[in-house]
């Protein structure tokens, strides 16, 4: 076994953070530590991990093959643990180590996770934006791309108690998508507070959305449970839950039907596999959150290929955040793996993550790349509203 020789990270547009690990034998693995709006914080955390595992600590006993030992070391020896920044940095390292190990062995990662249970995965794409509009035309474009399901933001910004009429347009957008014969997930995005979320859930129910996502912020577990008990629409959430310990109370409460853990936020492939097993015990489906780059999506695909309770996978192809020329098909030599047919993508069969990173493009576009700044909403009274 070879020791870790180097860990590098690359900030690349539109808003992604890639991690590259090389061992002393020259094996390479790629990970993704993207945390939207907090790039610099994750980079700082990665700097501390680099000092731990390479460089001054080159005589460490940590080997690239000991993925679980490295995960546990990173988690437990820092005393403070969890949270989006810490777990995103750990995710980037963990994914890269799985990629490196599987490539060294010449097999896809899913072969190391027990083998595949499917040959293709159902996927969905975004339509609309932070202020959703022109939904029918965008849904038709997605249908033409091969998708059978889409997701949209439910509303623009809302007050804690807003006019009930502010919810009407969401219903009309769902109806427009359904008229095309497509399924529609509706993301409340945590921007809809309880007095409005209860109304919107009820209004949408007759139109049978695929799910409603983050009907409330995840710190309001009792409120989410109450909404789940008043509607037959599946409740989806999880992108702001960063470990199995964060996920557990939601499973125990019965408040969630579809878990949307993010592999770049929750500790990587190692933790995602554990979370999916927990969810299966509660009859909860997995629909991983992934409005991110090709490395994160490939990592999700590898885990979900070996996951019985997988439902559907989010893809960032053409998402409204991908501006400036870079998209899901950037940074790889084999973007054809993301071709959608009949609402599905085929499972990649190549070694590791199944994608071939274009390192020249990564290095070139990382030069001078600016961190992505999260948008925000300001209400008519000058107050800050949930984005």
TrEMBL record:
Ribonucleoprotein as UniProt keyword: no
What PROSITE patterns does this protein map onto?
A: MR_MLE_1
Enumerate the spans annotated as Mandelate racemase/muconate lactonizing enzyme C-terminal domain.
132-234
The cofactor named in the record is: Mg(2+)
Asked if the Swiss-Prot or TrEMBL record annotates the protein with the keyword Protease, the reply is no
Q: Which GO terms describe its biological process?
A: amino acid catabolic process; D-galactonate catabolic process
Q: Which UniProt keywords apply?
A: Lyase, Magnesium, Metal-binding
Q: Which InterPro entries match?
A: DgoD-like, Enolase-like_C_sf, Enolase-like_N, Enolase_C-like, Galactonate_deHydtase, Mandel_Rmase/mucon_lact_enz_CS, Mandelate_racemase_C, Mandelate_racemase_N_dom
Q: What is this protein called?
A: Mandelate racemase/muconate lactonizing enzyme C-terminal domain-containing protein
This chain's source organism reads Hymenoscyphus albidus
Tell me the classification of the organism that encodes this protein: Eukaryota, Fungi, Dikarya, Ascomycota, Pezizomycotina
């Amino acid at each position: 076994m070879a020791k870790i020789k180097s860990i590098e990270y690359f900030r690349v547009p539109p808003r992604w953070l890639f991690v590259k690990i090389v061992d002393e034998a020259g094996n390479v693995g790629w990970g993704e530590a993207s945390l939207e709006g907090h790039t610099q914080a994750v980079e700082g955390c990665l700097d501390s991990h680099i000092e731990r595992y390479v460089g001054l600590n080159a005589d460490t006993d940590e080997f690239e093959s000991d993925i679980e030992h490295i995960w546990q070391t990173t988690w437990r020896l820092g005393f403070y643990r969890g949270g989006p920044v810490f777990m995103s940095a750990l995710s980037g390292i963990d994914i890269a180590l799985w990629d490196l190990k599987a490539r060294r062995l010449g097999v896809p990662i899913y072969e190391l996770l027990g083998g595949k249970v499917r040959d293709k995965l159902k996927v969905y794409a975004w339509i609309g934006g932070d202020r959703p509009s022109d939904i029918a035309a965008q849904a038709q474009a997605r249908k033409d791309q091969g998708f059978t399901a889409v997701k949209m933001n439910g509303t623009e910004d809302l007050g804690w108690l807003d006019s009930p009429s502010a919810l009407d347009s969401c219903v009309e957008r769902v109806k427009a998508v359904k008229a095309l014969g497509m399924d529609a997930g509706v993301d409340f995005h945590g921007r809809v507070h309880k007095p409005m979320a209860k109304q919107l859930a009820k209004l949408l129910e007759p139109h049978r959305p695929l799910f409603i996502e983050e009907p409330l912020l995840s710190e309001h577990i009792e409120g989410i449970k109450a909404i789940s008990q008043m509607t037959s629409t599946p409740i989806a959430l999880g992108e702001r839950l960063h470990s199995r310990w964060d996920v557990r109370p939601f499973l125990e409460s019965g408040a969630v039907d579809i878990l949307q853990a993010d592999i770049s936020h929750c500790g990587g492939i190692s933790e995602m596999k554990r979370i999916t097993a927990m969810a299966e015990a509660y009859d909860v489906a997995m629909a991983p959150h992934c409005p991110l780059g090709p490395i994160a999506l490939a990592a999700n695909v590898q885990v979900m290929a070996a996951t019985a309770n997988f439902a559907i996978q989010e893809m960032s192809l053409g998402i409204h955040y991908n501006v400036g020329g870079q998209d899901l098909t950037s940074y790889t030599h084999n973007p054809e793996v993301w071709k959608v047919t009949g609402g599905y993508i085929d499972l990649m069969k190549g070694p590791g993550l199944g994608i071939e990173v274009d390192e020249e493009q990564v290095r070139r576009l990382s030069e001078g790349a600016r961190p992505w700044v999260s948008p925000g909403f300001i209400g008519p009274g000058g107050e800050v509203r949930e984005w």
